[in-house]
Amino acid sequence: MNITVIGTGYVGLVSGVCFSELGNNVICVDNNVEKVNMLMDGHVPIYEPGLKDIMNANMKAGRLSFTTNIQDAISRSNIIIIAVGTPSLPNGEANLSFIELVAREIGSYMDNYKIIMTKSTVPVGTNDRIQEWISSLTNHPFDMASVPEFLREGTAVQDTLYPDRIVIGTHSERAVATLKELHQPLTDQIIVTDIRSAEMIKYASNAFLATKISFINEISNICEKVGADVSRVAEGMGYDRRIGASFLKAGIGYGGSCFPKDTQALIQIAGNVDYDFKLLKSVVEVNKDQRFNVIRKLEDALGSLEGKEIAIWGLAFKPDTDDVRDAPAIEIIQRLLEQGAVIRAYDPIATENFRKEVDSPSITWEERAMKAAEGADALCVLTEWKEFMEVNLTDLAAHMNQPILIDGRNIYGEDQIKDTSFQYYSVGRPGLTNIDGRKTAVI
Ligand code: UDX
Which helix H or strand E contains 284, and what residues bound it? Predict the structure, then answer.
């Protein structure tokens, strides 16, 4: 099939590359000339394992190309995928201005029947509006379809090539047949719905996963007070197939480009139809506060943070990405600076992006994890990068001014802690003991 993907962000680029990998001819369009030039030279602007190799192989095979010429791309394709961004407006609502712009361009350049497939996450009812924007500018026939994207950063290629399910929301039999054929190589699990249900499936899925995270984070807070171990609690819950084991890792809360934005947007969508989504509002509140447990634990260990040297390991919102959008580390570091702490931060790949969000003369950006911990009064682990798990903790304690470790992601186990001198705070596991038999502190 001949496909044009409009927008070369995370979703657009990964989808375009993966559809070309399946043997389709794909043109990826973006209005950012610099980005398109970079892609044409075979460089990937995001850190995503595996993407660059597949992209270059398909470019070489002549199935994948990049352009800024949207008119030409549209005229050469029978499926147009909209994958432009829908950033949050200050009130949490999704900003649809890029979508509208693209819809109007599609409308003006239509020259024969096409399927317009939306992959951007858009509020319920948006595809109907896209249909109106396009039809106001063309008499050529077309069908709308909402095919939401569920990929995760860091495993985006895998998630796209081996999805749990594909949701196709459309009212057209013709579009169903074509889109089923397009997605058939990926999975047998294809769910066909009306457009509004497909739009809602995306928000409801992300809101549900966010709910699981805030739920287990609250359970972890209670575990700290009653002396239970949240990791064992989650394990015990997870074997119940009705609950499932995933997304029950307690930590410092969710970040990233989707959960914070989509939960806010769904609260807004509900509010627009006079529905108060109380549960989801609480999920967001819990998530906002969870990150500050790191500060509370530091204060418990050190008292005032004024002038204290705090090492930070991990800035990205999760491992295997350089993305820092809504990363809990942003507000944690801002709060530490407000309280007069001096910071030594290290992340394997996200430092450059992070410095665009927060920078200060009180922060030193280190290039090695051990260097950041050298002489520190406490170390906070904010992202569960594999290299942090492999560190020798006795060695680490010896490098620090005070052996205080705040593990915001529960990356260390009882076995590693018990032989060290660390005053070790984790999330919801108050019973772990160090070499002196001292239990991890509870706040
Ligand atoms: C998410 C969805 O998983 C994906 O389906 C959607 O398309 C986009 O949003 P992503 O943001 O890339 O993907 O990351 P994900 O792996 O889902 O993690 C999101 C956040 O939740 C991270 O900050 C992570 O640290 C946190 N998380 C995840 C937890 O705190 N505990 C968990 O058990 C799982």
Answer: helix 278-290
User: Tens of pLDDT along 28-66?
Assistant: 999 999 999 999 999 999 989 899 999 999 999 999 999
CB 186 within 8 A of CB 166: yes
Catalytic residues: 258
Q: Using the mean position of ligand 1's atoms as its centre, give its distance from the Cα of residue 88 in Å.
A: 18
Alpha-carbon distance 156 to 163, whole Å? 10
**What's the 254 CA to ligand 1 centre distance in angstroms?**
7
Asked, for residue 207, whether it belongs to a domain, the answer is yes
Q: Which of 428, 429, 420 has the alpha carbon at shortest distance from 400?
A: 420
Interval 203-254: pLDDT, tens: 999 999 999 999 999 999 999 999 999 999 999 999 999 999 999 999 999 9
pTM of the entire predicted model: 0.95
- Residue 263, Cβ neighbours under 10 Å: how many? 25
Query: Domain of 28: which CATH number?
Result: 3.40.50.720
Enter the ipTM. 0.98
Mutate to test the pocket of ligand 1, among 259, 290, 381 (most ligand atoms within 8 A of CB): 259
Which residue in the block uniquely carries the two structure tokens 């549960």? Answer: 279
Task: Identify the residue whose C-alpha is closest to ligand 1 atom 33.
Answer: 247
**220 within some domain:** yes
Average pLDDT on 108-114 reads: 97
Segments forming the whole domain that contains residue 21? 2-193
Residue whose Cα lies nearest atom 6 of ligand 1: it is: 150
Please give the number of the atom of ligand 1 that sits closest to the Cα of 152: 12
Calculate the CA 84 to chain-centre distance: 16
Please indicate, yes or no, whether residues 368 and 278 belong to a single structural domain of this protein: no
What total of structural domains would you count in the chain? 3
Residue 153 Cα to ligand 1 midpoint, Å, equals 8
